[in-house]
Amino acid sequence: MQISRLTSFANPLLGWGLAEFALNRGKAACKESRSGGKDSECAPVQLHAAGRTDGRTDGLGLKTRTAAGLRAATDTMQMNNAQRNSPVFLPPSNGNSHRSPGYVPGRIVPVRSPPPPKIHPSQKSSSEARTGHSSFTFTVEEQKRGRAEELKKRKKTLICCACSMCVFFLVLILILSLTKKGVIDENCPDHNPSLRNWNPGHDLQRAVIIRKGDLFRLDSSATFLSLIIQEGGLLVFSDNAEGSKNITLRARYILIEEGGALHIGAPKCRYRSKATITLVGRSDEGEAVPVFGRKFIGVKAGGTLELHGTEKLSWTLLTKTLVPSGLVAGGHAFEKNFSRGLNVRVIDQDTAEVLVMDRFDTHDLKNDSRRLHELLKSLPAGRIVALAVGDSAVKSLLEETKRTIQNLLGSSFVNNLKYRQAWALVAVLGGGNASCSEEVREHENHDTGGQAVARKEFITVDGVKFFVTAYSEWRNGFPISGFQVDVVDGVVLHLMDDAQSWSPGDQIVVASTDYSMHQAETFLLLPCPECSKNQVKVQGKPQFTHVGEIIDGIDMRAEVGLLTRNILIHGEMENSCYGNNLCQFFSYDTFGGHIKIIRNFTSVHLSHVELKNMGQQVMGSYPVHFHLCGDVDENGGYSPPTSIEALSIHHCFSRCVTIHATNGLLIKDTVGYDTLGHCFFLEDGIEQRNTLYHNLGLVTKPGTLLPTDRNDTMCTSIRNKVYGKYVPVPATDCKAVSTFWIANPNNHLINNAAAGSQDTGIWYVFHSMSTGDTHGLVPDTKAELTPLGIFYNNRVHSNFKAGLFIDKGVKTTNASATDQREYLCLDNNARFRPHQDADPKKPRVLAVIDSLISFKNNDLGAWIRGGDILIQNSGFADNGIGLSFASDGSFPKDEGSRQEVTESLFVGESKNYGFNGGLNKYWGAGGAENKTRTLPRNKTFPIRGFQIYDGPVHLRNSTFKSYVPTADRYTSAVGFFLKNPWQLTPKNNITSVKFEASVSLKVFFGKNGSWFEENELDGDKNSIFHDVDGSVTGYKDVYVGRMDNHLIRHPKCINITQWNGVICSGRYSQVFMQTWGSQNLSLSISRDEYPYNPMVLRGINTQRAPFQQYQPVMMIGKSYTVHWNGNAPKETVLYLINFDKDDWVQVGLCYPADTTFQIMSDIYERQTNSFDHIEDYGPISSLEELQKRPLDRKYYFDNNTGLLWLFLRARHSRDGHSYCSSQGCERLKITATTKSKEISNCVAKAYPKYSKEPKPIIPMPPKITTLRENCGSSKVVFTSDPHKTYLQVQIKSLTSEEIQKGDNESFITVNGEKVPFTASGFFLVTVDACTGKVTKKTLFPELDPRMKQHFKTGIPNRSIVLLGTRNKPKGYESVAQYLVLLGTAKEADLQSKESLAFFGFHGQVKPSWVMLFTGLKGEKLGLQEKYIPLQLEEYSCTKAESPKRKDWELLKKALSKK
């Protein structure tokens, strides 16, 4: 009986806890075996348990007991709940961990056998003792009776001992058995022997508190009103090796207080089963919990939350383009009633493309029967033909047509078709009966006994299986016929990474690779036994194209994210919007659950957890929220540091992860999909040292919480926090929702993807002070001055506004009469200018944007304001504007900085043509091929690669591709900010750039018309850049400006009409003119050499500004006059901008003849806002004298013409990129006094008196006749896996027709090395897939035995095979059978093709990049390009030393920064 009872208890108990339990049972057995006696008589079997422990700990943190210590353990097991053993993962004395001090990752519990009981010498019987000391004697009978009782007691004691030892050894055997099977693992929280199985049941009205000593293993689903885990309480979800547990915990909230802990799995013991926490309740139910609110999991100070699901690949990239319907040619579906006769479809057997769609009325028209006969006879063998009867088809169906159908398609029913009989057929032309599928159904009273269905399965050359289905029937009195061409049993996705951890039934999301983020699609995974480790099969058909290739050198592969996890935390939602939840903007319930962690928690780590229906349109309630937590890494005493890893956050209602006044958090491998408001959100502007590594965010939609979250409608509708009746302006106050909202630059972004936001992918915004809950606690955050953290290998695409945006701040004051805008609305009050230690007096620190991939962003690939900033190793494609810099402020506040882009690639309109759907608005022709494609912004929007706004900007060692203007729009490689009122510097320079042949408009300065409007603002007119080495213009050391700008030109300048530009030699700078007292004036400036071609400047400030400013670009060493369209300003300040020492210009300013002047010069020091070297200017009698004394502080006023002449000369050297000299800004201040009210325009009097003959100061250089080497980027491919090597390969084949039209260039290119072939035939190049080296180049005039043998034995294993053709060589059609050896899924039909380009592989696998391109007669195949990965594991390359992963090194560096 005792053994049976023991067995029933053995399973939930482990380790020494089980041994202790066994001993207690043994003790009980001992007592039961006695008819009466004392506990002390069982002492021999208690193994002297009253002794102490030996001080050692086992792997679970429990004391290892000696034989002498088991009594204490036994007593412990008998205590009440308040005195039970502590949980497995107790915090150490410092309170920073919920693990035991003896924890060793991965160690198995050392379950030892207890030591054998000590054998003590038998004591003398009490009767013998008494015999020696007693003064009494017993009778013989009494002595016999005493001895009998003593023997009976000994017998019972032996029985008790035997039972105990038997039970003990049985338990020991059980423990050893469990240990051998690996069941006991100290890393598994549910293996804690101190836990009790807990099955609390379901009661939504019951508030549950887990108190000190309550150590529960939740073993079944449960429902509570609420759950509070107090100090000393522990809740662990039960798990098993099979992962068959399915536990759901439902509650309004779960609160983990100080000393409490909730565990589901552990980092070294992943949870295997399905665990679900459902947070229930409405926003109008129950009382809110202070700090936490409603419907939450909350972690208070001292609390522990450890959730660790099964490890799965978080997200990856496609490696083969996923096309709509899963077929490259697209699927086909057709159904129609009353389509009388034979409906016909002809399908290409290689591509599944429907080639012919026609109807032949063979019921009424014999001519249609003949047409059908002729069509079938004209088709090449192998074509797929599908037929379906609509209504009736036999009345005029000629015998010859029937015979053709019978002979060519193998029909068995066509000769016996009856009136209105339903018939469907699918067959291969020339394939005979075996290739034919057909069915007939009888017609009865306008109905049929079912549907006549014909269906056959085929496979494309690329290996995609597809069905062709035809059907015919009478349905409810109507004749129905139809066709379908679709993939078989799901679509296979090819992925970059091993996806074997994904399971059938999991849900994934595939990102958009077009302008609209709404082309993202979700799929369920299907079983796929035939899939490789890098393939999965999905249910359903894609609606949109998702690129899986590197196109034109830019990695445009779609992200594929996993949404399903085996730990799910989700909110239970209402069916519709209700209450005051602001859900009226969304038409659905937005009151989800949330997780909130507050300062001084003990331990929080979340990994591989799914969060769905989380977040609320309530401030502070987000899917994951670290709230005012301070330092959560080693700086805060957390070891290991706090992290969230591989979360799936989707269909949520307020952000993804919020980092609020928290530093040092690691967010890794997390997917955020279909969420409202900023997704990865840094809140108050003081969050630093956080690391975001390899996260994916996509479909980030507007929310209501902050002005920057809102769209137009929300922005103008939500006005409860503005002052008075102010109506917010969406473009300037709101519309900034971003996937990554980075409110302090000292954070690290590595390997992240922002794959679609309503506004921006990654936005760096700068808070002038701490905001929100920490408002004013850090009054000067110095965010604008703080150096940028690590930014490496991030990708941004499919965002409506911009991919990357570095600019602006937020309003840090409440709405008031002075500024009516809402607190935290977007504000143009910040400029990023990083300095060492955020101290403007210390040196500048370069902010490096490294390896950015930006494509398909409607407006901007990147907008970056500030300095010093360097963009390097980056790729931009298909953006409205690829990249635009803006200076860090307006002069004179901006001291000048470095803005540079280098080693980058710009593609205007790539071969990613997009898909016309999914909220894409614009569609039209474009690109080098002039094919229809999706378009950014508008059909007429002027696309630009590199946009110059103000500067100084520096572009070097970069490449431009595919910038081709169309009749609808100007598309240029280099362009300028549209309608630009701002200053622009001639220090903008371009050097060592490369324009590929696909660029037909290098530069464009704008033109009157759409988008440019008048093109007459100050910045438009002063657009200019320096072509340092001639790589833009072909002339070295020249400047390129607008063609009508006569301030910069001379007679030898060269006009480029297509650019609306002019190329000039010379040296150029600016004079910054600031006027006071007449801010609404227009300034007219003329050069004396072109007096009647003035430049009129409006000024850049509004009419409300107290001053106006102008900044014309001027040729150094020339003379100019300045005029006004009104009274001359009372005060004018002239700054010398970008003047090097001894540079000069001569300026005459127009004033009335009675004007008197006070003129002084000084040097303005911007850092201290002080003025030094103040000197007065004195008058002089003539201009000639002024010119003779250029270093004197003199002026000349010509009363006759009204010109005040000044000689402006720089007296100090300028350092680096500063606008001003190293001493400060040299300036001259003019105070004019006059009583005249006349207009100050002196042109009529000044000229021709001061006119001069135009001439160059620096002669025009000769045109460069040889191409410069080392121009353009040294890289040809820009990918999101830069540690891998990709081979650029190109094939250009030619047909005889193309050659006759004058195209004579056929070639194969490998990594930029072009190998031409001029003779007709097959040109075959093999490349080692491991090294990338060309191993063989062979031209075969025809498919002869030599070429056949080469295919069989001449190509080395692990070879990339490139095959092109010139003309149509003999044996062209038969080469298809040999391509099967190199990766095609079947023999392609080449009979009607004229040219081919083939990318194949000779080896044991078929890589996803294998592809055959063919051109029909009269069709231009064009240049085909691929970027092929080298050294893949599947190639079976000799394992080389793995390349250093820069991302891993940077991650380590980021996590080590304090």
Describe what you observe in this structure.
With 1458 residues, the protein is mainly beta. The protein has 16 helices and 91 strands. The chain has a 22-stranded mixed beta sheet that branches. It has a 16-stranded mixed beta sheet that branches. Helix 1 packs parallel to helix 5 and helix 2 (15-33) packs antiparallel against helix 5 (140-180). It is globular. The model is unreliable at 1-138 (pLDDT under 50).
Write the layout of secondary structure elements.
Elements lengths: L1 H9 L4 H19 L36 H8 L48 H8 L6 H41 L15 E3 L8 E4 L4 E4 L3 E2 L2 E4 L4 E4 L8 E6 L1 E4 L4 E4 L9 E6 L16 E4 L4 E5 L6 E3 L14 E6 L3 E7 L6 E7 L5 H13 L5 E7 L8 H11 L12 E7 L8 E5 L10 E8 L5 E11 L2 E10 L3 E4 L12 E4 L10 E6 L8 E4 L11 E2 L2 E2 L3 E4 L4 E5 L22 E5 L4 E5 L2 E3 L11 E8 L11 E3 L2 E5 L4 E7 L2 E3 L2 E6 L3 E3 L8 E3 L2 E6 L10 H6 L12 H4 L4 E5 L5 E3 L2 E2 L5 E7 L24 E2 L2 E3 L4 E9 L15 E2 L19 E4 L2 E3 L4 E6 L3 E4 L2 E3 L3 E6 L12 E9 L15 E4 L4 E4 L9 E5 L4 E9 L10 E5 L12 E3 L2 E2 L22 H4 L2 E4 L10 E5 L11 E3 L4 E4 L3 E9 L6 E5 ...
Parallel strand pairs: 1-3, 2-5, 3-6, 4-7, 5-8, 6-9, 7-10, 8-11, 9-12, 10-30, 11-31, 12-32, 30-33, 31-34, 32-35, 33-36, 34-37, 35-38, 36-39, 37-40, 38-41, 39-42, 40-43, 41-44, 42-45, 43-46, 44-47, 45-48, 46-49, 48-52, 49-53, 51-54, 52-55, 53-56, 54-57, 55-57, 56-60, 57-61, 60-62, 61-63, ...
Antiparallel strand pairs: 13-29, 14-22, 15-16, 15-17, 17-18, 18-19, 20-21, 21-22, 23-26, 24-25, 24-29, 25-26, 27-28, 49-50, 58-59, 65-66, 66-68, 67-68, 69-72, 69-73, 69-75, 70-71, 70-74, 75-82, 76-81, 77-78, 77-82, 80-81, 83-84, 83-91, 84-85, 86-87, 86-88, 88-89, 89-90
